[in-house]
Amino acid sequence: MSDGVNSPASMSSIPVVMCTWARLHRLAETLEMLANQRSVRAELHIWNNNALIVDEVERIVADGPQGVVAELHHSGRNVGGFGRFFKARQLARGGKDRVVFIDDDVTFDDDMLLRFDHEFRDDQIRSFWAFQCADRTDYWQRRQLSVGTTERADYCGTGGMIAPTSVFLDSRLFRCPPTFWFIEDLWLSYFATHVLGLELRRSDNEVVIHKDMYDQALDILPQKTLMLNALCEQYGWRLESEGRGIEPGVAPSFPEMTRETAALLRAADQSDHNSDVFAAPAL
Fold first, then answer.
1. How many domains does the chain have?
2. Does residue 193 belong to any structural domain of this protein?
3. Cα angle at 11 between 7 and 15, to 5 degrees?
4. How does pLDDT run across 5-62, given as a tens digit for each residue?
5. What is the pTM of this model?
6. b/e burial code for range 191-204 (CB count within 10 A of at least 16 → b)
7. Which of 10, 28, 42, 127 lies most in the core, judged by the most C-beta atoms within 10 Å?
């Protein structure tokens, strides 16, 4: 087991939350990249959505760099990327003011966390993946923003993001219909801008994504357009191209929180921010 050459205890740390489901072949490399971060120490929280790979994940973590993984949580159900929101809420209640989200299919440099830390503002979310959408009826009519731009984004992906944890203390965020749990970044982008008034911006970080057959979102690509349209038509979201803000006379109306979501939320609220006590809710 290596020590992580750039992660002494004296360095400042930042919580990083990553969901995993099937990319065991990428996990060791991701741990090494986090161990090699300069000036900022990674405090990794892994949310494993796959009960079939528990033993392998634990073995890879045990054999990996010391001091990188703060917590390994095995979810009782595959809740997709939405799992990271429950963890972020737990971190917020434990006093953390910021959180970095990453996916397990990207390669990043040794200054990723330092760059994110320098970019952090409590009224912004910044991401590798920042887009403006041109048409509310077609999610794929979008334009990726360039590094250094002053433009605001409509959408920021959770596959490489820094966000203020205060966002996750608002329980309305967790009223997202479970059918959209695998499109959590679109829901978060709506909620942050339309409900909370935050700005979405392009991070100066750059990554390389490794496309493969293990992306759970591949099965729900058509739902992204449906969700974008629903957020605009039913929830009053306006895109940058339409003029940002709440439409006159339209207030956010959220569905009731499901019993399962409420159970996960209670687990996050009742647990210590560094303990792994989430339990699968009784259905």
1. 1
2. yes
3. 80
4. 444 455 799 999 999 988 898 999 999 999 999 999 999 999 999 999 999 999 999 9
5. 0.88
6. bbbbbeebebbbbe
7. 42
